[in-house]
Amino acid sequence: MQLLDTFGVALRGILSNKTRSMLTMLGIVIGVGSVVLMTSLGASVSGLILGQVSSLGANTMVIFPSTVEGGGGVPRVGFDSLTFDDVTALSQLSTVRTLSPVIFVPGEATYGSQKSQPQVIGTTENFFINQSVTAKLGRLIDAQDDQGSRAVALLGPDTAKDLFGDQNPVGLRIKIKDSSFLVIGVANSLGSQFFQNADQRIYVPYSIAKAITGQRYVNYMTFTAATDSDLALADVNAFLRQRHKIINPLNDPKKDDFVVHSSKQAADILGSVSLSLTIFLTLIAAISLVVGGIGIMNIMLVSVTERTREIGLRKAVGARGKDILLQFLIESTLLTLIGGLIGIVSGVLLALLIALIAKKFLATYVFAVSFGAIFLAIGVAGSVGLIFGIYPARRAARLHPIEALRYE
Amino acid sequence: MTSIPLIETRTLSKSYFNEDVETAVLFDIDLRIEQGEFVAIMGPSGSGKSTLMHILGFLDTPTSGAYLFKGKPTVDLDDDALARIRALSVSFVFQSFNLLPRTTVFENVMLPLLYHPSIPEREREERVKHAIEMVGLTDRSGHLSNQLSGGQQQRVAIARSLVTEPEVIFADEPTGNLDSASGVAVMATLQELHRLGHTIILVTHEQTTAEFAQRIIHIHDGRIHSDTRNARQKSAAQVHALK
Ligand SMILES: Nc1ncnc2c1ncn2[C@@H]1O[C@H](COP(=O)(O)OP(=O)(O)O)[C@@H](O)[C@H]1O
Ligand SMILES: [Mg+2]
To answer: Considering only Cβ atoms within 10 Å of each terminal Cβ, which end of chain B, N or C, has fewer?
Structure first.
């Protein structure tokens, strides 16, 4: 018997009982569909998370103050461990480049009757380099503004919209707390950073922020590593510990009154979180594939029993055991492959639907499919059909022709 | 010099074993059937006719004794070799037709060709058409098997049995599920095939059916009782015309 004939016979077996075939495929459709859906969601979510981090710039590092007991991490007003002298000293380090201190100025911003609740950041021009901030309108804050303590402001695009709508604000004056500021520019959009809106900001010169707040410490600093970011991290840690008279050879974060983060480190952590999430979800989906395979085996066994007489007849007209074996193996493998294809299409469509909905809430969410996962899923589906098809197919192939023909 | 018979058995016996219980069914069967004969194996129900036919048709194997097909012993043949002989040399018509359900007449008749090792694919359609024409069902070849009457279904089974041009056609109670008119029509088809040179071995418990054959072998309790030429062979076509 030719292979093509066996294929034809197997295909006719599938088509001649469509309900049974659909039921057989269902488990595989669900299994493959969920593998594809889960890996696609995983890829989208990790893309989303990495996007939050990478908008900081690959080599950007941040120093936060912290108390000796409590962990740092979130810049909290009132942590006063990072002084102006620290800023000056750190900027001299050879591993540190474009260091910029940040002082928060609390209070709302107004333009006439329009109000906005921005994050007001007093900083230097290096900050714009570190965070890739560029001017959409007007210009950025420069060294002269800082040295001259000029009351000028660069608006984030969302703040500009809040206060001025579609009007060009450059050259107009706004109020922050009780001081008047001249708007010199509007920044391009940064999107969100660590799930905070980075466009709802106002940048003012560092010197002005110092004067308004009267603060003797900085809220945080950013810089870029001149060399390798791990090297810079070690260097800054050692340098600040020395200045703050902290002995901490074991790098116990509880002993430091500051904490240094690199965006690479954050990306690694978030990346590994989303990877393990993807692995976990894929594992669940893989289990459902195996369950689907057992379902296939069951229905194939029922199918072999139902078709005992047919098998007997085929043997009576000359089919060998291997012809019958191949027929049922091809049938179960074709079933799982077709089920796998349906599963892929529905998984991708579902992921697309979720992406369309998610985009409404998270602008940076992108639809992603993992082609690796698709190939893997279809491969696994085919193997499931083959492996779980073997037992029923062998049962069919071993039937005695007479007993099979007599089967009621 | 005697020619080599198509079928020859020597003290052939068959027992069934179910959980160590032996049921002896056939005893010391000595039989010769020549090419081109039309033989009826006749006997009461349970006498071992079907068992004998299954052994002669390579669907089952004897417990002891020898079965020679075209002079060659068959004792050493494995399952695949037996399947090959079934594909090439023998075919069956069963009491209960055994057609594939929800499948056309054409595809049912095609079935043995799928397992035939040497008939080329391009000859298939021609052979199937010819076989269906032989049994007079050309106008039904696109019908599903379950849309036909019993007599028509059995004629489809006969077409299926001759599509590979086997050396012998076995028919086990082919009229058993049919009314007498359809039964006679089926017998007329078998007689026509015999006239065209086919070897036919018919199994039946009815004297009237056996009388369409050339030679009648009576079998009782697993032993051959008599083996005679049928002097009163009837023409099924004539009987059919009378009805
Ligand atoms: N698989 C089997 N196991 C045990 N006994 C069997 C089996 N098949 C047939 N028999 C017995 O063998 C005897 C002959 O059966 P069979 O050849 O079908 O008779 P016939 O076709 O003449 O009616 C019967 O008594 C039957 O019960
Ligand atoms: Mg019988």
So the answer is: N
Q: Is the CB of B118 under 6 A from ligand 1?
A: no
Distance from the alpha carbon of residue B109 to the mean position of ligand 2, in angstroms:
24
| ipTM of the complex as predicted | 0.95
Longest dimension (CA), chain B: 53
Q: Tens of pLDDT along B32-70?
A: 999 999 999 999 999 999 999 999 999 999 999 999 999
Comparing alpha-carbon positions, the chain A residue that sits nearest to B88 is A318
Contact at CB, A318 and B86, closer than 8 angstroms:
yes
Q: pLDDT tens across B159-202, in order?
A: 999 999 999 999 999 999 999 999 999 999 999 999 999 999 99
- Torsion, Cα A260 A264 A267 A268, to 10 degrees, reads -100
Interhelix angle A308-316/A321-361, nearest 10 degrees: 140
User: What pLDDT shows up at residue A77?
Assistant: 46
What is the C-alpha separation between B98 and A308, in angstroms, rounded?
Answer: 11
Q: What whole-number distance in Å separates Cα of residue A148 and Cα of residue A205? A: 9
User: Counting Cβ atoms within 10 Å, is residue A51 exposed (0-12), middle (13-18) or buried (19+)?
Assistant: middle
pLDDT confidence of residue B1 = 46
Q: In angstroms, what separates the C-alpha of B45 from chain A's closest C-alpha?
A: 16
Residue whose CA is at the smallest distance from ligand 1 atom 4: B16
How far apart are alpha carbons B56 and B35 in whole angstroms? 14
How many angstroms away from the CA of A313 is the closest CA of chain B? Answer: 7
How is chain A split among helix, strand and coil, in percent rounded to 5? Answer: 55, 15, 25
Mean pLDDT in order along chain A per 10 residues (408 residues): 83 84 86 86 79 68 75 54 91 90 91 90 92 91 92 94 92 90 92 77 94 91 86 89 87 83 77 79 79 84 90 95 94 90 93 89 80 84 88 93 89
User: What are the sequence ranges of the domains in chain B?
Assistant: 101-165
Encoded amino acid at B15, one letter: S
Three-state secondary structure readout of chain B: CCCCCCEEEEEEEEEEEECCEEEEEEEEEEEEECCCCEEEEECCCCCCHHHHHHHHCCCCCCCEEEEEECCEECCCCCHHHHHHHHHHCEEEECCCCCCCCCCEHHHHHHHHHHCCCCCCHHHHHHHHHHHHHHCCCHHHCCCEHHHCCHHHHHHHHHHHHHCCCCCEEEEECCCCCCCHHHHHHHHHHHHHHHHCCCEEEEEECCHHHHCCCCEEEEEECCEEEEEEECCCCCCHHHHHHHC
Residue A55, pLDDT score: 62
Nearest CA in chain A to B80: A320
**How remote is the C-alpha of A245 from its chain's centroid?**
40
Q: Where are the beta strands (DSSP E) in A152-257?
A: 152-155, 173-176, 179-187, 192-193, 196-197, 201-205, 220-225
The two beta strands, B7-18 and A96-105, are: unpaired
The residue with tokens 């697993």 is: B222
- Count helices and strands (H / E) in chain A: 13, 14
